[in-house]
Specification:
Layout: H1 20-40, E1 62-67, E2 73-75, E3 78-80, H2 82-95, E4 100-105, H3 111-124, E5 128-131
Parallel strand pairs: 1-4, 4-5
Antiparallel strand pairs: 1-2, 2-3
Helix pairs in contact: 2-3
Length: 136
Amino acid sequence: MSMQRPSDDEGGELSEINVTPLVDVMLVLLIVFIVTAPLLTQAVKVKLPKTGQTEPTPDKHVAVLAVTAGGEAMLDDKPVPLPNLEGELKALQERDPDISVQLQADRAAVFDSVAKVMASAQHSGIGKLSFVTVEQ
């Protein structure tokens, strides 16, 4: 009894993988994806009513915080050094808890100084911070 290796003509097992069922399954999944993808991005078309432009109601509790082109902070047209800005904003917040701060940054201002002013406003506890821009 010797161990012999089956030759190809004896009908031994093949060690190749049959990929046909795998390709069939992948094609079916691709077809399902192609059919369902447009349905997921479809939106309901609604005709919205048109109204005239309205002015927002003026907020009585507004402080204007500006950043100049040189990076200096101005609170209600008064220059405030960046280290003292957080204290000034905290004092405003304590006097009027409903205060809203409008941030106006010069176009030429470096983003680093704007980010520092925004961080000071966040650390001081200001809850309403809005950005003022100009329509082009």
